[in-house]
């Protein structure tokens, strides 16, 4: 298993080798500002006391308060949280929102806990972190296995611990009655779609010729597939954890959704051919959208990918070795820090609404998201063309230039 923090540093180093940055700035970027590790005692339903380990890594706050989700996973560890915090600093800066990078987590398999135990765990994390989080300090959000329900518990517990009148803005991704933003639920897929449209224009591919394959049919992948379908694109491949399906004539995404609801998987969809998840990544298409898991492309399978471009909606699907292969083959990879930044962008809009006591319509949120994502892609693409580098290198450079400027200021 690759160390995700080492991978993140490799990406940083590759970008730093292409442009002159202040060496002190680079040194600062290689280390998080602060790492907090806590013990969270939780009284279980059976009366037993269990201690869970929780984390918050605050990478950089030059552009604004630290921002990043909280992950509940049995394998969550400090290296993973560290990497995710660094990527959040880059991600927020790429899309130009006034936030820095942070990430949190708890080492726990949430499926083994009751709702009551999860609530006590989340409130325990919040209480222990109440001095380090806050609307002007550090603003968490949902990540793997945490949802608006957990975010509402965080806002409530933080308010109890601090009496902060701005307590709603301490966390984003809340339910709408608790101060969540309209459009937040689909923001990652929506943002990915706006980047896809811009990419297609930059690659000069006509709409009719632009076939798409999506790996992962969850929150982000499903919304993207739905938008491709709604807008008349041919989705030729789709998959979930059980496997994939392929139809070169195009899949009816809504019918696949119904089929998955009834059968628990996209596989065995009438008229389509079943493929494995490994085969799915090597299908003939113009744009391939990994929207499931990290570490999907290695040097080996990267050499067999037939797509003309890759849009990383998942976090970290491409290993540094695969990146090299895609670079040598001239396949542009729009990196996660740009392609999936729609979620954090609307999180920022939620934070702004909470601070100003405003409620924006879904249309206002959608329009702001569209212009933010388009401007980010334009800035990154211009940098890529100017330096003749990869899209990932360009995204890191654009982000690092902004953070460096903010640190100097
Ligand atoms: P999700 O749990 O809703 O969906 C994941 C999907 O991937 C499911 O359909 C699952 O069946 C499928 N899957 C799991 N293992 C697979 C495999 N081996 N091959 C193919 N499919 C597989 O998760 P999500 O929220 O949609 O997140 C997906 C990715 O996008 C993650 O990397 C996540 O970090 C990233 N992301 C999500 C958001 C968001 O707002 N949801 C924001 C930023 C980044």
Verbal overview:
It is a single chain. This protein has 409 residues and is α/β, with parallel strands linked by helices. It folds into two domains: 33-178, Rossmann fold (3-Layer(aba) Sandwich), CATH 3.40.50.10860; 181-409, NAD(P)-binding Rossmann-like Domain (Rossmann fold), CATH 3.40.50. Helices cover 46% and strands 17% of the residues. The protein has 15 helices and twelve strands. It has helices at residues 4-16, 23-29, 78-94, 115-129, 148-162, 187-203, 219-230, 253-263, 277-280, 299-302, 320-329, 336-339, 342-356, 362-387, 391-408, and strands spanning 34-43, 49-60, 66-73, 101-107, 138-142, 211-215, 234-240, 243-246, 273-275, 287-290, 309-311, 333-334. The strands form two sheets. It has a seven-stranded mixed β-sheet with strand order 9-8-7-6-10-11-12. Helix 4 (115-129) crosses helix 5. The longest helix has 26 residues, at 362-387. The protein is globular and about 55 Å long. Nicotinamide-adenine-dinucleotide (NAD) is lined by residues 188, 215-221, 239-241, 277, 291-293, 313-315, 340, 343.
